[in-house]
Specification:
Length: 349
């Protein structure tokens, strides 16, 4: 992707931000996206945003970093503000017990098992209630993301639309858990899922919004050959063999063990090196366990890297065949599971 040429951005947040600051960082707006999505799409977005000027919207989720929802909200909240809406983002807090329970719920909504005890429900609902007290959601629209903050709707005098945005695979949820959560879900004015097959019989209207990536995020920007080589050298990643790379959270649903198994079969035919590059979301207590469960599979042909380095993720995602090296990119999230198994999961890393 070529670097975009930016014009000086007019103050768009003058009602609540100081506008006299010099050399303010550029915030990407719809005009930056125009050359990528075309005039028709850009003008349609502007037209839809016009009657929503000054609408006060809040998004509520459970992590500021490490998962696809956080990555999506980081870009979307800023873009919506440049379009004239007032869009905020709140992150709930919770104990390790709470996030352990919500991770089990996350897995069970995708078909896993869960022992839905009264104690788990008590902890789950109690922590959500605490967050309802400390978050004063007096907005025009409230958008709640995924199951972690789902019951918040029970604790507010509801006078505005509330939307539940579910980013995970609901095609085969654990029945007992689904029936338990359904009483919260049906209090919402709308439910948004990522695919048609994730819809269920509900009294609440359901819409499908497909997930997207931001071409302007650091992770998706183009890199020079020199930058790629520098990051590979920094982490001592050899390039004497073709690289097979999976970029994802260390999560059971990304199936890193299956990726290693498949790679070991394929490497009998083609000599290559596997790099599993991942991180752990702040609301995912299972990540370290998953990493440790495959740690003994590392060798001179299988590398495991758990680092918070967006530039390295860019290398793995963007590097084309170039120079003297051959790179094979396998995306467990965005492509069919040819080698990397993405059994189920959310929108992206």
């Amino acid at each position: 992707m070529e670097e975009m040429q930016h014009t000086d951005q007019a103050p768009q947040f003058s009602e609540w931000l100081v506008t006299e600051v010099k050399d303010r960082p550029h915030i990407f707006d719809i005009e930056d996206y125009r050359r990528l999505i075309g005039d028709v799409a850009a003008d349609r977005i502007l037209s839809k945003a016009e009657p929503l000027q000054d609408l006060h919207v809040v998004n509520v989720n459970s992590t500021y970093y490490g998962g696809g929802v956080a990555e999506l909200l980081s870009s979307m909240s800023l873009l919506m503000n440049t379009l004239g809406l007032k869009v905020g983002w709140r992150v709930i807090q919770g104990s390790p017990d709470f996030f352990g329970i919500t991770k089990k719920m996350h897995n069970a909504l995708q078909g896993g098992e869960i022992n839905l005890s009264d104690l788990k429900k008590e902890i789950y609902e109690g922590v959500v209630y605490e967050n309802a007290i400390r978050n004063h959601l007096t907005h025009d629209v409230v958008i709640v993301h995924d199951p972690q903050p789902l019951p918040m709707i029970e604790h507010y005098k509801k006078t505005v639309p509330w939307i539940w945005r579910c980013h995970i695979d609901l095609s085969n949820p654990h029945r007992e858990l689904w029936m338990y959560l359904r009483r919260f879900i049906e209090k919402y004015d709308a439910v948004v899922v990522s695919r048609e097959e994730y819809k269920h019989v509900l009294n609440t209207p359901q819409l499908v919004f497909e997930p997207a990536i931001d071409p302007f995020s650091i992770k998706n920007k183009q890199m020079s050959d020199e930058e790629i080589e520098e990051r590979l050298d920094h982490y001592n990643i050899p390039t004497d063999l073709p690289l097979v790379v999976q970029v994802s959270r260390f999560d059971p649903w990304k199936d890193p063990k299956g990726v290693i198994d498949a790679f070991e079969l394929a490497s009998k035919e083609v000599d290559a090196r596997l790099v599993l590059l991942g991180n752990v979301a702040t609301d995912d207590p299972e990540g370290l366990d998953v990493y440790e469960s495959i740690a003994d599979r590392a060798n001179d042909r299988v590398m495991l890297l758990s680092v918070e380095d967006t530039a390295l993720a860019r290398v793995a995602r963007l590097m084309p065949p170039h120079g003297r090296h051959t790179y094979t990119r396998i995306y467990a999230v965005h492509h069919p599971p040819v080698v990397a198994h993405h059994t189920m999961g959310g929108c992206c890393w």
